[in-house]
Amino acid sequence: MHRRLYKYRVSSIMFSHIVTKHITKKHSTMARMMMMKALCMMVAFMVVVAPYAEALSCSDVVSKLSPCINYLQNGGSVPTACCNGVKGLNAAAKSTADKKTACGCMKNAYHSMSGIKANIALGLPKKCGVHIPYKISMSTNCNNIK
User: Fold this and answer.
1) What b/e string do you get for 60-76 counting C-beta neighbours within 10 Å, with b at 16 or more?
2) pLDDT digits over 81-114, tens only?
């Protein structure tokens, strides 16, 4: 009798251990599945958002070209910081959408700031050693930029 009781306790302990292990394994599997779902959602979100994270904005254009304002109003020698901004803007505007954004922002800035001389603005890229495939002018149709 003593032996049977011992076996029962061993069986009970083993059964308890097996059930606990099964429940833990089940929860662990569910937790892993939830983590995988969360990871997949994060990756999908990053794929969708990534192209927009690097899109050029008007504030980018203004900050890059702000060192040029005095030159665009008064002429003279082109400041190094201005040319660095022009080169930086040209490098940042890779896609067609970025180029159209930059064009529209420059036109808006021209309207909002008085005293900018159009002929000086037209020659600025060349003075900075940058080739832009469209004319910087108020008559430029930004929608036609490729």
Assistant:
1) bbbebbebbeebbeeee
2) 999 999 999 999 989 999 999 999 998 888 888 8
Q: What are phi and psi of 139, to 5 degrees?
A: -85, -5
Are 89 and 105 a contacting pair, CB within 8 Å? no
One-letter amino acid at 44 equals A
What whole-number distance in Å separates Cα of residue 88 and Cα of residue 111? 23
Can you give the CATH number for the domain in which 81 is found?
1.10.110.10
Q: Are residues 127 and 69 in the same domain?
A: yes
The contacts of residue 67 (CB under 8 Å, 6+ apart) are 79, 81, 82, 84, 85
Domain range holding 78? 58-144
- Report the number of distinct structural domains present in the chain: 2
